[in-house]
Amino acid sequence: PHIRTFNEEFQTCAVQGAWPLIDNQYLYIQATSTPTRGSSYITILTKITVILKNWRECAELQIYQAELDNVPPAFVDGSVTGGDRRGHQSLRVHSHDPGRHAEIWATHIGTMIVVRQVGRSLSLSVRSPRAIVESYTPEQDLQLCVWGCPVSQRMETPYVHPSTPAYTHCSSLLPVQDVYFQACLFDLQVTGDLNSSASAVAALEDARAMISNPDRVHLLTGRA
Amino acid sequence: CRILQCNSDFVAATLEIGVIGGGGKDGANAVYCSALRSYALCTQRTARACRGDLAYHSAVQGIEDLLIQHRCPQTGPTAQPRPLPKPPLSGNGCFYEKGFMQKEGRAPEYLHCGVFGD
Asked: Hey, is the C-beta of A179 within 8 angstroms of any chain B C-beta?
């Protein structure tokens, strides 16, 4: 997967298997990457698990799980709300497109999580207050959203000549040559499928919706 | 790998008790041993992530040497663990943003993470 971290770093990561994206006192999110299309090193996200931890009077533990071709509009116990304490529900799941999109709100930690299926892969976007993101102990030391991808697992984005169809296609969808544009080029080069650009476009839309300062949406790093 | 956190926790603990090097008195030595055992526990917790880290292996060896040098028992009390990060909520508020604004007079700083690709 491509990762835009909480620290505004951007990496393309070759990790396989289940990896924690976020692991703090309130929230645990894990994503499973699986090799695809006959390649041993190109992976897609096939499963995302969100555990909203029990928190005092505000929320009881609740679990959300999405798999490829099954992004449910509810928690694993079938409910669409949770944390029903003191007459207030802190947790809520909502969907614009059941089966392919879910929005999870946790008001007691001011956090919004969006899970999507775009093409043949899942994606995740999270908006969370700094104090919540930083509420981890030294033992919670594996979090791709916080520390980024392990150095040994990072992949170089390939140079793509402007005259190629991939470049033209990504430019038409993503006019700003930022990290989302780079991700689009990468995915098109790897898959050879123009439809794979939808993932970067959706990730940019989520970033626009979640980042209040428009100047910070288009992250420019490395080749971008 | 969070070995630097273990190192700084140990340095902070020894500075607090003023016994860098262990001191000579029995009481000071007992406190120093307690700090060393906490240091050892901290390294154990981060062992998986620090598998290939030279600073980690150096710390583990150093702790073993110091435990022997100061004749510290393998088991015994450990220093108080580092306090957990302050909970963001206070009073009866289950609305983080509302509670934060009441307390700080401004909206919280939000961070964004995106994981995607096809």
From this structure: no
Instruction: Transcribe B56-97 into DSSP letters.
Output: HHHHHHHHHHHHHHTT--SSS--PPPPPPPPPS--TT---HH
DSSP character at residue B57: H
Which two structure tokens, joined as six digits, stand for A49?
């698990």
Q: At what angle do helices B3-17 and B54-69 cross, to 10 degrees?
A: 30
Length of chain A, in residues: 224
Please tell me the least confidently modeled range out of A46-60, A79-93, A99-113.
Answer: A79-93
CB A17 within 8 A of CB A24: no
Distance CA B28, CA A66 (A): 54
Widest CA span of chain B, in angstroms?
64
Quick check: A2 and B97 CB within 8 A?
A: no
Residues in chain B: 118
| DSSP reduced 3-state for B62 | helix
Mutation target among A126, A199, A206 for the B interface, most CBs of B within 10 A: A126
A21 vs B contacts (CB less than 8 Å): 113, 115
CB pair distance less than 8 Å for B111 and A125? no
CA B30/CA B91 separation, integer angstroms = 40
Q: Beta partners for A85?
A: A88
Residues 6+ apart with CB under 8 A from B115: A1, A2, A3, A4, A21, A31, A45, A123, A124, A125, A144, A145
Residue among A33, A50, A108, A153 with most chain B CBs within 10 A, to mutate: A108
Burial of residue B27, with CB atoms counted within 10 A of its CB: 0-12 exposed, 13-18 middle, 19 or more buried: exposed
One-letter amino acid at B7 equals N
Tens-digit pLDDT profile for residues A55-67: 877 888 999 999 9
Average pLDDT over residues A70-78: 96
From residue A70, how far is each of A89, A111, A199, A200 by CA, in Å?
A: 25, 23, 17, 20
**Cα angle value A55/A59/A62 (rounded, 5°):** 105
For A199, which of B2, B111, B118 is closest by C-beta distance?
Answer: B118
Averaged pLDDT for residues B45-60 = 88
